[in-house]
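Figure 6 in text form: structure in, sequence out.
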């Protein structure tokens, strides 16, 4: 039997076939659209809603909100408290918790469109899901119980407000909570910047310096009243997945903390418990290695390693991207992996990266153990878990101990190489495994000077010079940063210059609004005033203002606006190793001020604003001052504060070891709910640099309770 060739279609038949194919494609598209609409427009199934509602039966918890709306959550078990926190947090900011979960899952683009595709692809590149799947069941049972209880609390809220949940979002799981930590923690030391720069220039990642956060601890020997004091002062964006949320937790199992939480985090990330506390600041040691790969010219899926061609591990990133309405389109993009780690094909070449935190799933465990540490020994044991890839810690406790840890997972780099640059990608001896032990991590405990601090500066300037760490004691392969900041200079000129600090002075130093005479801003003012004005009346007038500026940023100041409108773009450009035109920058600032304020010296508070809802106030402070405010330029010439000082705490143990603390938030407890009375109720106090008491114990909370309820009380009455 032989095959009979099919007749070739005539022109008329071809037309019919084409029309038929078009019609058939149209039918398929219509079916696809209808199915997509049906699936994506439908909320969670009734069965799932009942399941999420039923989870509340497993928990016993009360939520008591104080007069500022801050939730105080009580329960017999840690899991009960975590459930209550998840519910309360969702009441105040469900939208950000949801965004955080979708981002770490790699599902954001399906909800927000193409703007989320980059982070979705990044989640695939970093193998977030695979890392969680491989490590989740290895986490201790008590840790899993807490993250799952928090997820149950968020789910319970979502079951009561299904319209707020994005398609496919529910249910939130314990794995989602863990994934959020895995995805976010490498960005604190700059992984996102490295990935971006690899795609934009060939010379490799620049070491961009951090711009925010202060932590200070004062021992009894340096306090006028013998107290131990701690400043918790992280600088974060005012909104989004790493914006602070305040809560107080107390369980019958000894989990009793007050402090800052991120959306999607069941754990207090910094603040205090009954015995000790700590502040976090961003550090940026060199924890990322970039390798330039050589591809096989006859097979682009192979790279050279030790003289041989080795296959990439290839997987498919199937990214669902919202097109319009509820319709999504799946985009396929390959994800490559090498023996070094993830691979990026860029216009500048093919690179592999290896970074601290790869494959790490225990971040949640370390935070939980830190929260529950009862003394310095237990706290240091928790730090020795070394699950957190970076972040400085400034510590204080009821016994008067203070300390500073330049925490990082320092790669165990043994081969001789220039680890600061791009490395050859054909040598397996450059593939490091494991990290240096905790006792090799730079740290200072109970220095004679009686103080430690960090303001995103080098760890070699953390206390008095006689007590400081010495660079010679640490190998260059650790990549320890050596930069300074204005805030570090001011810390030494305030806290470091005062041998007997009162409570009032401690607060005043925190809210310092000045630039040091040694700062980059002061040096820039000198450059600007030395410019040849060439007879330009505006430049001459501007130079006169700059010469008389006192380097302060109070709202009434008439030199700060001109100086900082020039300084922000110039210093940002210099951080990127660019050479900005000073005359052009000064002329631009002059033009902005003349156009919008009709003068070159408006009051700083007229320019520098904080806005949230109906609140619109002038605010003291500026970039890299201790009272940090980072403003975004608006069309009207003003700046709207978007980051900097956010959640602040003062923690004190008096000389008898009695605890007290104060706090303030830049907005309030319900930052994403404009209808809440706590949407921006703390902003006027924040602007006035005033604090409110932290009602840490049940007795302290009495008489200050605005609401007292269980999550079930929020359910509609039958």
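Output sequence:
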């Amino acid at each position: 039997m032989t095959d009979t060739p099919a007749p070739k279609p005539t022109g008329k038949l071809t037309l019919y076939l084409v029309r038929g194919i078009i019609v058939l494609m149209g039918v398929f598209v219509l079916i696809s659209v209808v199915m997509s609409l049906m699936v994506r427009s439908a909320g969670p199934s009734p069965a799932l809603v009942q399941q999420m509602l039923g989870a509340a039966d497993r928990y016993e918890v009360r939520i008591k909100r104080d007069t500022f709306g801050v939730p105080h959550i009580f329960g017999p078990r840690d899991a009960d408290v975590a459930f209550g926190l998840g519910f309360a947090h969702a009441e105040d900011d469900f939208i950000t918790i949801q965004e955080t979960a979708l981002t770490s899952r790699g599902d954001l683009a399906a909800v927000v469109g193409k703007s989320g595709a980059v982070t979705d692809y990044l989640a695939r590149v970093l193998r977030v899901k695979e890392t969680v799947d491989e490590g989740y069941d290895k986490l201790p049972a008590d840790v899993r119980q807490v993250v799952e209880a928090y997820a149950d609390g968020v789910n319970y809220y979502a079951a009561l407000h299904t319209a707020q949940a994005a398609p496919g979002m529910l249910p939130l799981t314990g794995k989602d909570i863990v994934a959020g930590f895995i995805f976010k923690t490498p960005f604190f030391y700059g992984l996102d910047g490295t990935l971006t720069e690899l795609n934009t220039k060939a010379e490799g990642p620049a070491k961009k310096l951090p711009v925010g956060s202060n932590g200070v601890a004062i021992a009894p020997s340096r306090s006028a009243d013998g107290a131990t004091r701690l400043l918790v002062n992280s600088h974060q964006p005012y909104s989004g997945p790493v914006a602070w949320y305040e809560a107080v937790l107390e369980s019958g199992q000894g989990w009793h903390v007050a402090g800052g939480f991120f959306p999607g985090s069941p754990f207090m990330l910094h603040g205090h418990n009954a015995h000790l506390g700590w502040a976090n600041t961003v550090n940026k040691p060199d924890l990322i290695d970039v390798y330039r790969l050589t591809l096989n010219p006859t097979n682009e899926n192979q790279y050279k390693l030790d003289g041989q061609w080795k296959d990439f591990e290839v997987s498919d990133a199937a990214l669902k991207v919202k097109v319009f309405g509820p319709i999504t389109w799946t985009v396929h993009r390959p994800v490559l992996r090498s023996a070094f780690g993830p691979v990026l094909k860029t216009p500048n070449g093919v690179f592999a990266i290896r970074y601290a935190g790869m494959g790490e799933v225990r971040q949640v465990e370390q935070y939980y153990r830190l929260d529950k540490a009862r003394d310095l020994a237990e706290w240091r044991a928790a730090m020795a878990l070394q699950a957190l890839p970076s972040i400085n810690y400034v510590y204080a406790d009821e016994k008067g101990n203070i300390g500073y840890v330049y925490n990082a997972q320092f790669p165990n780099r043994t081969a001789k190489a220039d680890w600061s640059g791009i490395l050859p990608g054909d040598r397996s001896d450059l593939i490091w495994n494991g990290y240096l032990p905790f006792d090799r991590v730079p740290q200072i405990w109970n220095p004679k000077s009686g103080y430690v601090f960090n303001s995103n500066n080098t760890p070699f300037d953390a206390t008095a010079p006689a007590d400081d760490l010495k660079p010679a004691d640490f190998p260059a392969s650790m990549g320890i940063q050596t930069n300074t900041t204005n805030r570090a200079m001011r810390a030494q000129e305030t806290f470091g210059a005062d041998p007997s600090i009162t409570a009032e002075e401690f607060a005043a130093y925190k809210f310092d609004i000045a630039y040091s005479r040694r700062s980059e801003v002061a040096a820039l003012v000198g450059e600007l005033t030395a410019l040849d004005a060439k007879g330009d009346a505006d430049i001459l007038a501007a130079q006169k203002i700059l010469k008389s500026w006192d380097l302060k940023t109070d709202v009434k100041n008439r030199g700060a606006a001109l100086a900082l409108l020039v300084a922000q773009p110039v210093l940002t450009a210099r951080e990127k190793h660019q050479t900005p035109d000073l005359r052009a920058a000064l002329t631009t600032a002059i033009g902005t001020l003349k156009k919008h304020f009709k003068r070159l010296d408006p009051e700083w508070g007229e320019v520098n604003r904080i806005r949230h809802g109906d609140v619109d106030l002038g605010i003291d402070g500026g970039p890299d001052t201790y009272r940090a405010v980072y403003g975004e330029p608006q069309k009207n010439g003003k700046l709207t504060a978007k980051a900097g000082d956010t959640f602040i705490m003062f923690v004190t143990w008096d000389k008898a070891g009695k605890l007290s603390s104060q706090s303030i938030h830049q907005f309030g407890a319900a930052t994403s709910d404009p209808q809440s009375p706590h949407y921006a109720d703390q902003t006027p106090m924040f602007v006035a640099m005033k604090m409110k008491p932290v009602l840490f114990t049940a007795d302290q909370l009495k008489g200050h309770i605005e609401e007292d309820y269980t999550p079930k009380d929020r359910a509609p009455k039958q």
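Caption detail: The first strand starts at residue 62 and ends at 66.
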